Amino acid sequence: MNLSNILTLIRIIIIPIIVLCIYFKNPFFGWSAFILFCLASVTDYFDGYLARIRNEVTNFGTFLDPIADKLLVSAVILILTSKGIIADWETIPALIILLREITVSGLREYLAGIKVSVPVSRIAKLKTLFQLCALALLILSESITNIISIIYLGKLFLWIAGLLTLYTAYDYVKASIKHF
Q1: HEC string of 22-81?
Q2: Residue 144: what are its φ and ψ, rounded to 5°?
């Protein structure tokens, strides 16, 4: 157990708290969800960074980190959809994001079985940034009702993330297909 793995575990542990805070329509809980989501998002960057610079990359962390990322994003997308914050046309990029995560997980599992690794691209990192910013803004949109542009900015970022997600999914499948 090292600092990177502890950060990853903390990210997983606070997911239910974020979901509950989003569920309660109250500015205090909305801000709490926003702050916790932002902290969880930041740990997504720092856990891997710390593991690499401290030479503490472990099999456990390599396994758990992408799961923590997918759990966080999926849980928030689902609760925001259930509350109608992600609705109508915005369900399309949300669905693209969820389907890509399932597809890439399956590909990674297959490729790991044949000892092949596909590195994360810069576009995939940009996709993650837009995805996390979109969800953070959408979480915050219920607590700041007097600034209507926050929800529209969140939805715009969700669409950008969805388009980048399509590109990265294609890129990942293209890099993987030669191993079938």
Answers
A1: HHCCCHHHHHHHHHHHHHHHHHHHHHHHHHHHCCCCCHHHHHHHHHHHHHHHHHHHHHHH
A2: -115, 85
Phi, psi of 55 (to 5 degrees): 55, 45
Topology of domain 3-177 in CATH is Four Helix Bundle (Hemerythrin (Met), subunit A) (1.20.120)
Round the average pLDDT of the chain to a whole number and report it.
Answer: 91
This prediction's pTM: 0.92
Domain limits, the chain: 3-177
| pLDDT tens-digit map of 88-135 | 999 999 999 999 999 988 888 888 788 888 778 899 999 999 999 999
